Amino acid sequence: MSDGRGPSAGTAERFVDARLQGEPIPEYPGVMPASLAEAYAIQDAAIDLWPDEVSGWKIGLIHPTFRAQFGADRIAGPIFHANTVMADSDTVIDLPVFEGGFAAIEAEFILRIGLDAPTDRTDWSLADAGALVDAVHVGIESAGSPFPEINDHGPAVTASDFGNNAGLVVGAMLKDWDANALTRFTAETCINGVSVGRGDASMVPGGPIAALAFVLGATAARGRPLRKGQWISTGAVTGVHVIKIGETAYAHFGDAATLHCRAVRAEPRKIDTDANYRSMR
Question: Which pTM value belongs to this model?
Answer without folding.
Answer: 0.93
